[in-house]
Structures are given as C-alpha cells and as structure tokens.
Write a structure and sequence with these properties.
heterodimer; A: alpha/beta; Collagenase (Catalytic Domain); 6-stranded mixed sheet; two-stranded antiparallel ribbon; 8 helices; B: Collagenase (Catalytic Domain); 2 domains; 3-stranded antiparallel sheet; elongated
C-alpha cells in the first residue's frame, strides 16, 4: 500500500512537468475534418461518422525562438508582454488578426494622406502571418477607415487634459476603432472612425498611422517609449516604422495561435522554448 | 431519478416493431415502474398484480396488460461512437466540461418549420444568400424545413438591422449584433430574432457571414467549441473559408434525428445512451425510441 501511495505521489509531482513539455500541451491543436485519405496524425484522435472517419491533421511544433528573453532581447520581450498582457497573468488575452487585412479608405480622406498611409504600411509586408492590402471597393474590405461628422471623444467628458493643445494633439481626439473579434480572441474585421474636420493633413496622417498600428494588436500608447515608436505619446511621425515596432509585430504574428493565450500560457511557452533545440 | 429514467426509457424505447408511424395501438405486455404505474392508473394494485412483479436495478416493475400506446413513431436508436458523442454533448448541451452542474443543461430544437422574415433593409442578395444556405442545410436534415415569408406575422425567425423597427423588444438595448431565442417547457424553440449592427458589419460579405453563423447556432441553441478547426461552423474561431463540414452536417442531422430523445437534459441523455448501448451489446437487440406525437 505504501508503495502505491509513493507511486501516486511521484506521478502527481511529476505530472505537471511532463504534461506541458510540448507546444501542443499548451496550445491544444484543433481537429481538422480530414477525410481518411489524407495524411493524419498517428495516435491522434479520430471521429467515426456514418460514411467516413475523420482524423487529426499532422502538425509540426512551431519554433518558439521569438519568445526567448536573452540579454539582448530582454527589453523588447518585456515590452511585448506588457503591451499584450498588461502585467496580468490570466485576465488579458492576446488578440491577433487571423485573416488578411483588406483596408478601404473613405474617399473623403485627402488623397495625399491616403497615399502616404498606404506607402507607410507597405513596410510591414515582410511580417509572417500579417498581410495588409488596400482596396478601392468597400465590398472587398474587412477594415473600413470611415470619415464621420459625429463628435468622437474616446476619453470621457470629465477627462482633464493639461491644456487644450494637448487635447487637440491626442490621437484619440476625433478617432476611435472597433474590431470584430471571434470567441477565440481573433480579429477578422474592423472600423476606424475618424472626424477630420479639425485636422490638418500632417496630423491626420500621424493619427491614422498610430490608430491603425494600435488596432493590429490592440496595443496601447505609452509616454515612456522612444519618439520613433508608433506607440509613443510623443511619436514624431517618422516615414519609417521603427525596429522596435516591427519586432513587436514579428513577435505578435510569429504564430496564429489556435487557442487563447494569456500571460500564463505565454510564460509556459517561454519555458518550452528553453527545451527546444 | 432512477424511476424517471426507467419510465422515460420505457416510453422512448419500443423493443419490437418496425420504424413507422403508428396510431394508438395496444401492446399486450409492458412493464413500467411502480411509481409510474401509480401516477398513470391511480388504482390500487391487486394480489394478482403482485404475482407478475419484476425486480430490476432496485426498482419494482409492474406488468400492464393491454397497454394503450399514444399515437407516435418508433425509430431505431442511432448508435454513435464515444468521440462523436463527446463533441455533440459539448455543442448541444452548451457544456465546456462534464460536471454535475452542466448535466442539467438541456438540448433545444425547432419542432415547427422555420419561417424567415427579413426587414426591408436586408438586401436581396443577402436574403438570397441566407436562404440558399439555410435550405442547403435543411435539405440534408430530416424534419428541418426552412422557408421565407413576406409577412412578419407569418414568421418565427426575423432578421433585421440596428435602426430598423425593433422586432424583438428584449434586444432594444443591445449594443452589439446578437440573436434572441425563445423556447417552451419542452425545450422546443419557437422563435428567433437576429439583429445586426451594420455600422460594424459594414458590407454584405460580413453580414452574410455572420447571418450564416447565427443560423447554424440558432438551429439548436448550440455552443461553439475550441476543438474543431476554424472552417467548421461549430468552431469558436473565424475563418474566411467557413463551410459545412461533413462533421457539422452529421452533428445537425444527429440533433434532429428521431434516433435520440428530444428536449432532454444531459444527465438523461447519458443515462438513455448507457441503457441503449448496454441492451445492444448484451442482448444484441434492436432498441427503438418511441416518440408520441
């Protein structure tokens, strides 16, 4: 009996360590409804139907190098984790686009601004799993940058700015966005609403560049970032996307996760990465 | 609970006979539980009755001679493998894990034909796309019929947009696109209203996708689950390539099959399956579900 208890305790202690030793222990793979003539996962689950049997599709474990927090990468990994998980381990869930983003720009946006915005975002076409394109037809889009005559005030009426100038220069003065997210926290459509009545072209371009970038990962802006970052309160409206911003996107879109990812699961992925060759 | 289960089984299962519609015919010998006997006949048992008592699983079963069965239909129990049933239960009983609380959840279904009314704001091509999809589903599922109606009073499924006449007052204050289902005490869904925010679903493609998504979910107050790949309508994630997979269709067909009892909770569903499978395995006997009209 004593032996039995010891074996039980031993298994109980070791189980969590063994249970999460692969990416698929953390991010449970989904069952593809593959007919039985396609390559399937050995020992994977299968479902018997009336006229067919469905098998789990084979998947390769992804390379998790991007979560590695080495000395050189510590700052960017920390920035990424704070942007996505807001220093919360379980309540904040990672949101990413799981379909190509096709943007339609309202015709009321000045041509110069539209063209600059499109040129600017061509720079991120090398990011895996993130494809952004522009269309001239609303029917083909899943992201609508829409001009509105409505007053847009993201901050509440009682929010106090240090000055009127600060209020006018804030990107959320006159602009907001809404994203359609599925139950797995993946984005697939959105509308960025902007009131252009009080904006000059330079500010409008800056506002659109920042708002659009924020909506790519539901990021937040922060006063402490370098002014070349689109997420900085002091963003300098640079013509190029900073290395840090690009790295955030690379990390964010390295994998389109099949399941929800929170701060705890992200940490678990970092542990798994340590054992990957 | 055991009494209820056995009673249900005796009502639902008819061990002999053919799969066909039957008018209220008389069965020569039927055993029912003591409790059910007292509820149904309200007359005292005699000494003669006690001679034919049967004892099974701690229950006393009473032999009823010339049992008058209500009008109904007998259909063979539809056997499914355990993996299929695992996912079916998560979807139909809206349960994420099997625990005692979830076992009280009931499955819901449409008893009557679905009659769809679209508000004037819904574009013709979106109406056509929706109806073509809905009919393609219904054509593959027994006892599920869908048609479009021109007058709202003839409908039991309404599709409308924010800013239209408020067809479902309980959705008046909804800020996001959603649907509202109503069902009776037998868990039969008798109405559904779908309300779409076209400010966010800004083109016909997005509207058509969400309407099809809602249609599948409202066929049985189903849950989406995180086990299937995103192409499945029962997956909780979006895909540009949503399609009715063979598994999706089989799940809906099973939900509407007469080979299972309708409107039950998860606990009863599991008990019935256990008994039906046991009968099949141990007696190699064809178990039938009897559904009174």
């Amino acid at each position: 009996m004593m032996k039995l208890i010891l074996v039980f305790c031993f298994n109980f202690i070791l189980f969590p360590a063994f249970a999460q030793n692969s990416y698929f222990d953390i991010v449970k793979p989904r069952i593809d409804c593959l007919p039985n003539n396609k390559p399937a996962l050995q020992n994977g689950e299968y479902i018997v139907l009336t006229k067919d049997t469905l098998y789990t599709k084979m998947r390769l474990e992804p390379d998790l190098d991007f979560v590695k927090s080495t000395k050189e990468r510590r700052r960017i990994v920390s920035r990424y984790a704070s942007q996505i998980f807001r220093f919360e381990d379980s309540t904040s869930i990672l949101k990413q686009w799981n379909s190509d983003i096709v943007v339609y720009l309202d015709k009321q946006i000045p041509k110069e601004v539209s063209e600059n915005l499109m040129t600017f975002y061509e720079q991120i076409n090398e990011i895996n799993n993130l494809n952004i394109s522009f269309t001239s037809k609303l029917k083909d889009a899943n992201y609508y940058i829409k001009v509105t005559s409505e007053k847009v005030n993201v901050y509440g009426e009682d929010y106090i700015f240090n000055s009127e100038e600060e209020r006018l220069k804030d990107i959320y003065t006159g602009a907001t966005y809404r994203i359609i997210t599925d139950n797995n926290y993946k984005n697939y459509a959105g509308v960025l609403k902007i009131n252009i009545s009080n904006s000059d072209n330079e500010f409008l371009l800056k506002q659109l560049k920042q708002m659009f970038f924020i909506s790519l990962g539901q990021f937040y802006k922060y006063y402490g970032y370098e002014e070349t970052s689109l997420l900085s309160d002091k963003y300098n409206n640079s013509d190029t996307i900073s290395d840090n911003d690009l790295e955030l996107l690379r990390m964010h879109y390295a994998i389109i996760y099949e399941q929800k990812i929170n701060g705890n699961t992200f940490k678990a992925l970092q542990e798994i990465q340590k054992n990957q060759r | 609970m055991k009494h209820v289960i056995i009673f249900l089984v005796l009502i639902c299962f008819y061990l002999n006979g053919q799969a066909q519609h039957q008018k209220n015919d008389t069965l020569k010998h039927v055993y029912i539980t003591l409790k059910s006997y007292k509820q149904k006949y309200k007359k005292p048992l005699t000494q003669k009755d006690s001679l034919s008592f049967l004892f099974k699983d701690n229950d006393t079963l009473v032999l009823v001679e010339n049992y008058l069965r209500p009008n109904g239909v007998g259909v063979p129990y539809e056997y499914k493998d355990s993996t299929f049933l695992h996912y079916y239960k998560k979807i139909a009983f809206r349960t994420k894990s099997i625990d005692s609380l979830d076992k009280k959840q009931t499955m819901r279904y449409w008893k009557d034909d679905i009659k769809v009314f679209f508000s004037k704001s819904v574009e013709k091509r979106t109406r056509n796309d929706f109806m073509s999809f809905a009919k393609s589903v219904a054509n593959q599922v027994d006892s599920l019929n869908v048609s479009e109606v021109k007058h709202v009073e003839d409908s039991n499924y309404i599709v409308y947009y924010f800013g239209d006449y408020e067809y479902e007052s309980r959705m008046k204050h909804y800020k996001n696109s959603d649907f509202y289902l109503s069902w009776n005490k037998h868990q039969q869904i008798y109405s559904c209203s779908v309300k779409i925010d076209t400010d966010l679903y800004f083109n016909e493609a997005l509207i058509q996708e969400i309407l099809k998504d809602y249609f599948i979910i409202t066929l049985g107050h189903f849950s989406k689950i995180n086990d299937f790949s995103c192409e499945s309508y029962f997956a909780d994630c979006y895909s540009k390539n949503k399609q009715l997979t063979t598994l999706d269709i089989e799940l809906i067909k099973y939900h509407y099959s007469y080979g299972i009892c309708k409107g039950t909770n998860l606990e009863t569903f599991e008990e019935q399956h256990e008994i039906a499978k046991e009968t099949l395995n141990s007696h190699n006997r064809k178990v039938r579900f009897y559904h009174p009209y």
